[in-house]
Amino acid sequence: MLIASAAPAVVSPWLIAPFALLLLAIALCPIVLPHFWHRRYPLIAVTLGAISAIWYHTVTGEPAPLLHALDEYIGFIALIGGLYVVSGGIHIRVKGEATPAVNCVFLFIGAVLANVIGTTGASMLLIRPWIRMNKYRITAFHVVFFIFIVSNVGGCLTPIGDPPLYLGYLKGVPFWWVLEHCWQGWLVAVLGLIAVFFAFDRVNFLRAPREVREAETANEAWSFRGLHNVFFLAVILFAVLKLPYGWRELTMVAAAVCSWFTTHDDIHKANDFSFGPVKEVAWLFIGIFATMVPALGYLENNPPPLASDIAFYWATGALSGVLDNAPTYVAFLATALGQQQLALSQVSDVQAFAAGHAGTLEAISLGAVFFGAMTYIGNGPNFMVKAIAEHAKVHTPTFLGYVVRFSLPILLPFLALVGILFFSRWRIFG
Predict the structure, then answer these.
(1) CA dihedral of residues 288, 291, 296, 302 (deg, nearest 10)
(2) If you count Cβ atoms within 10 Å of the first and of the last residue's Cβ in the chain, which end, N or C, has fewer?
(3) Burial class (CB in 10 A: 0-12, 13-18, 19+), 272
(4) pTM higher than 0.90
């Protein structure tokens, strides 16, 4: 997801209010006003987004940042929608239930795959079989750790893996730079989170009835249908990497349409396919994209004084969970370049920064990717996974429940440890 980095010269802090209100609505309304929210969330999102749109268009006379955000929203929803439809045409069937060990292997494979087809593609492809293989004992932590590992942390080895890294690649960061400099952070984070998950899943497994545990030790028999859609996934990936704006989005939409009409109805039924989840994401994120522009403009005009790699890691991470990680990456990359009298608009400057200040760029990259898992809106796939799980009748945490029960007590201390190991004065790696 890429959002405009340009902004008016002066952005009032009051213009951040619509973004804050939308976050509060997403967090609280499903709890205190569930029926009202499910019927009115499109109107709420559009209304709050319209406040930012009207201000940029009529008050400042500088609609460029908003128009750029609209372009990026179109690209975002074309990618999300395309991957959702195409992956929904692939049915992965498993026999029996998964043991904790099998679950851990599955999550590791998902983390690797996220770097090939992106966190969005891996999430959309694997969330349904993940739910099916744990159907007799699936709980909220299964969904949450899937988001942690497959939808976020796993995708930090290539620019394809996560939107902020793709944006860095477009700005001039060499393609293989991420793999060269971030593989240790990826390995520590992925294996560490999988180890934490195993502890949770082992307890859950031992509490399951005997017949479930015995079924879970049976030989796994995997089968795949709709594999022609792998071609359409490749088309979408090609469009993301090679085609310019406009042609890229048209190609992704065309791939989704072709996938829909060439996939048998029984595969969609087996996947419980519905357009409900992508509809919810589309409405909410049009409000998020619009209201985020003033917040990013204020941040760029009032950059925090950051003097160390650990400071960049925490600052990028802190905002990535609530401002979406891609635009946050842009803002702090621009800040770091500016400190060295370099320009984000110059590819040669970005390349020089990547070569000469690898530690700072690594801190920004890992902070953006890893902390995108802190909330449902930190990264595009998060909300989609939640919506698909809910459609499958799986209990998922609310916005606040996700943060209070999982992000703050589990993910945040773990990411703090990663920061100490890689970017502090007591660093072991790097």
Answers:
(1) -140
(2) C
(3) middle
(4) no
